[in-house]
Amino acid sequence: MSSKQVGRALSYKLRKTTSELYSASNTDDTYKVTDVDFEDILKQADKIQRYPIYYVDCPGSVEEIKNTIISFQFLEQMKGKWVIVILDHTLLTKGQSGESEREIISSLQKMFMERKKHGKITIIQLSQLNREIEDKDRINNPTMHYPIRRDIFGSDSLFQTSDYVIVLHRPEILGIENYGPKKLPVKNMIYAHILKNREGEPTNLSFENNLKYNRIDEVDPYTILNF
């Protein structure tokens, strides 16, 4: 929901958890929003309100998503500007009766390719991994820890149409103690595996998990190992 997205944005900017921000409804002795906090929240909320960001909370079919994109492209205030479409996420797209999830994703990718030919538009779509990443044999074999192309649901059509494919992975959740052949740290770590990079080589990035404040911060894992 868009209200939750705004809450996460405030959490990031104010470095407070969403639970702390929503604490006005608490009846126990946990954290309470102070008057100073409330003034900061109002200031940041006013800034966010001015951003040219629009939310569509209702899931749609491929055709409905296409029409929504077109309607935004032709808004008077978008004239000459770049439109960035973020779809969260692909499996929420509605399909026709009897249409499989993979068929829906394939149709969605074809539509996105068609829309990219019309006007200034960038499309960011979120998907998920299938359960192969949780296989015990992979968890026990460091050479198989990193996500690969086939781990992404609907990977064939997604790879074909995307300029960049990035997988965020938290090996700590799977019970992995040392990540990959280089035995990278997992405590509070998030790894971004760039599986496809049309303008360069695939690579991996590492981040410290600060998701309680809705942020991740890039770090050098070898610095952590040598600490």
Could you give a quick summary of the protein structure above?
The chain has 227 residues and is an alpha+beta fold.
Mean pLDDT: 88
Tally of structural domains: 3
What is the count of helical runs?
8
Rg, Å, rounded? 21 Å
Distance between the termini: 40 Å
Q: Could you say which structural class the secondary elements and strand pairing correspond to? A: alpha+beta
Tell me roughly what share of residues is in helical segments. 25-40%
H-E order: HHHHEHEHHEEEEH
Low-confidence stretches: none
Looking across the biggest beta sheet, what order are the strands in? Answer: 3-4-5-6
How many strands, what sense, and barrel or not for the largest sheet? Answer: 4 strands, antiparallel
Report the strand count. Answer: 6
Large-scale geometry: globular
Provide an overview of this structure:
- The two termini are 40 Å apart.
- A hairpin with a 4-residue loop joins strand 5 (203-210) and strand 6 (215-218).
- The strands form two sheets. Strands 3-4-5-6 form a four-stranded antiparallel sheet, with no helix packed on it.
- The protein is built from eight helices and six strands, in the order ααααβαβααββββα.
- It has three domains: 1-51; 54-126; 129-227, no CATH class.
- The chain is α+β, with helices and mostly antiparallel strands and 227 residues long.
